């Protein structure tokens, strides 16, 4: 038997009410190299399996009696450890597209949508998108319980570092920016998912400390980039908890100024969902950020419920279109209309429009055709360490920093 291309211990759960389909998909998964497979012939049984032990992959039919796939996904989204998902269905493409958007809006990682009958090539292609950081390798993972001391000690002890995913100008293909992504190598637990680190920091009242540590590292990394002749914008995420403390904006300014750098080379990313929870606090914090010279991006646009009127009130400089819109665009006319509307909204508001999660040439072509400015996704470059980013930049022309005035 050939070696599996997937991480050791990776577990997959297949859910379908058709026993023949369960057998076929299980055989295909085995042929694809997955070893730890379990099946369930109804949604209720799948939930029992998921509660008994976590899975890395969930391959789920949509149309099932009793608890259908949509209800199952709603329950899965509430789990503390959620698998990456592959959707299966014999329904038309419109139902599949909407189902994918629903699942992604719930915060699930959707590797792909497969129409029945499923073939090995299509299944292998979708499984090739699996990344342990998305659907974590859980089989032998210990329960992670980082506390406040762990956050402080990790920051002081070097557990925190950043990976960078490049952003390209879609027309000229020039390298203009990168998103800084939190990575955490705990001495006790090993690699800890960023979401667990952020949650622990929030619970301990240390999210400001964590965010400032991220910015401090990003400033140091940008100085290294500058010494290599790479002047780009760096973006990083801020939490709702950060935006409640207006003084953190002053601390950010001090960190950038201490490095003799420019605040307009940094973009604060706030998700659309967070914007809608407490808009008054958010608007005040974002105004202060802009007054200090920082750029502001609305992240994951399309996953929340922000109206055009509300977006017009925001002092943002960039609108990042969620991956679900980008993926749906080339697949159907309805998807194209949704993506076009999102891009045109950003353009009408004078924003830099970034399309997120671009994975295919078709998605890239359509984003350019519809007027998107910047692209970010695996097609251009995966998240990489600073040294890798510098090497990557050697083969990509560096343009003016994203969102530069």
TrEMBL record:
Keywords: Phosphoprotein. Coiled coil: none annotated. The modification 4-aspartylphosphate is found at residue 61. It comes from the Bacteria. GO terms for biological process: phosphorelay signal transduction system. Residues 11-131 form the Response regulatory domain. GO terms for molecular function: cyclic-guanylate-specific phosphodiesterase activity. Residues 144-397 form the EAL domain. This is Response regulator. It comes from Lysobacter antibioticus.
């Amino acid at each position: 038997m050939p070696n599996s291309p997937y991480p050791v211990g990776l577990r997959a759960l297949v859910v379908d009410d058709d026993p023949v389909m369960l057998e076929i998909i299980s055989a295909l998964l085995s042929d694809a190299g997955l070893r730890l497979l379990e099946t369930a012939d109804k949604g209720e049984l799948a939930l029992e399996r998921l509660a008994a032990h976590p899975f890395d992959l969930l391959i789920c039919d949509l149309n099932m009696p009793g608890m259908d796939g949509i209800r199952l996904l709603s329950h899965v989204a509430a789990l503390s450890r959620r698998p990456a998902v592959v959707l299966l269905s014999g329904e038309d493409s419109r139902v599949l597209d909407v189902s994918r958007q629903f699942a992604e809006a719930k915060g699930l990682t959707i590797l792909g949508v497969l129409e029945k009958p499923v073939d090995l090539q299509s299944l292998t292609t979708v499984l090739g998108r699996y990344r342990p950081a998305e659907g974590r390798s859980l089989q032998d993972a210990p329960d992670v319980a980082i506390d406040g001391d762990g956050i402080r000690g990790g920051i002081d002890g070097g557990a925190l570092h950043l990976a960078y995913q490049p952003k390209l100008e879609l027309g000229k293909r020039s390298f203009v920016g990168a998103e800084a992504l939190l990575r955490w190598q705990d001495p006790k637990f090993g690699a800890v998912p960023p979401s667990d680190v952020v949650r622990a920091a929030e619970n301990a009242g240390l999210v400001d400390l964590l965010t400032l540590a991220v910015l401090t590292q990003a400033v140091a990394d940008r100085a290294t980039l500058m010494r290599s002749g790479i002047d780009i914008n760096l973006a990083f995420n801020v939490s709702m908890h950060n935006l409640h403390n207006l003084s953190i904006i002053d601390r950010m300014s001090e960190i950038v100024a201490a490095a003799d750098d420019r605040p307009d080379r940094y973009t604060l990313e706030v998700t659309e969902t967070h914007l809608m929870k407490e808009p008054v606090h958010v608007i005040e914090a974002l105004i202060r950020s802009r007054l200090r010279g920082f750029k502001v991006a609305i992240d994951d646009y399309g996953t929340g419920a922000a109206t055009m009127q509300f977006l017009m009130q925001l002092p943002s400089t960039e609108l990042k279109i969620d991956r679900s819109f980008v993926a749906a665009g080339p697949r159907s006319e309805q998807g194209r209309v949704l993506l076009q509307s999102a891009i045109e909204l950003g353009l009408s508001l004078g924003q830099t429009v970034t399309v997120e999660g671009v994975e295919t040439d078709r998605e890239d072509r359509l984003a350019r055709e519809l007027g998107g400015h910047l692209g970010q996704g695996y097609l251009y470059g995966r998240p990489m360490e600073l040294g890798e980013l510098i090497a990557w930049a050697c083969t990509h022309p560096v343009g003016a920093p994203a969102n530069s005035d």
